[in-house]
Amino acid sequence: MNQLLFVSFCALLGFSNAAVLSSSRIVGGFQIDIAEVPHQISLQLRGQHFCGGSIISPRWVLTAAHCTEGNLDPKAYTIRAGSTDRTKGGVVLKVKSVNPHPEYNTENINYDFSLLELAESIGFSRSIVAVDLPEVDESLDDGSMCTVSGWGDTKNYQESNMLLRAINVPSYNQEQCAEALASTGTVTEQMICAGYAAGGKDSCQGDSGGPLVSDGKLFGVVSWGRGCALPNLPGVYARVSSVREWIRKVAEV
After folding, report:
1. Would you say residue 24 has pLDDT above 50?
2. Which of 73, 110, 173, 202 could make a disulfide contact with 229, Cβ separation 3.0–4.6 Å?
3. Which ranges constitute the DSSP H helices of the chain?
4. d(CA 236, CA 223)
5. 113: CB partners within 8 A, 6+ apart
6. Which residues are tagged catalytic?
7. Spatial CB neighbours of 12, under 8 Å, sequence gap ≥ 6
């Protein structure tokens, strides 16, 4: 699993065992206004963006467990919502509790989910809206178009990641994804893949925890991958429908 890991922003700021995986940024995408993806939030540590997340109700945000790994102190985090710029605008809210999935596995990044309870309810507006969730075990047909958004690395110095960016990518056949990534990690039933065989478009560092949305529903959470936007190496996302009952139990959503 070593080739999955890189020195994360979280680790640099003092997390004991945190690591963000390599498919966590927007590469080959386009700038987008927050009003087009109003569920998107910036998860911040000491005022600095390091992961994404999705609003699922006025009091709850869903992100990746590897984003909160090593630091479950809610006081360490804030979220910025309702802004295209990750450094200003919108609203900034404190976090009341951090709830990683109890089966999260740091070795194979399985069950890569963390629910953040907000200290106060967030007011919905044109630029702040909860995203719909899929039903239990609801699946995507291969080739279904999905939107991924975030403030992560663009791999292009001419494309700033200060402003929100997005890509549209198709869901990827599960068996083909598992085979393509077999030398890197295990693609489990709690994961879903998306991307182009030709590469060129992907999420990347800094997008971790962010949304993979198809037909208005949050089907995935940006999780891991090998490199970014490489041919025949799709991005891997935590499959939201596989933990739908856990979300309902913890967040009552």
Report:
1. no
2. 202
3. 9-12, 65-68, 174-180, 244-251
4. 6
5. 62, 63, 64, 65, 100, 101, 104, 221, 238, 240, 243, 246, 247
6. 66, 112, 208
7. none
- The tokens for 38 are 């109003």
Which tokens in the block code for residue 50?
A: 């390091």
d(CA 62, CA 216): 16
* Per-residue model confidence as pLDDT tens digits over 54-88: 999 999 999 999 999 999 999 999 999 999 999 99
- Span of 12-21, 66-75, 110-119 with lowest mean pLDDT: 12-21
| Distances in whole angstroms, Cα of residue 250 to Cα of each of 3, 98, 100, 131 | 33, 11, 10, 17
**pLDDT at 5 (0 to 100):** 34
The pair of structure tokens assigned to 225 is 């991958």
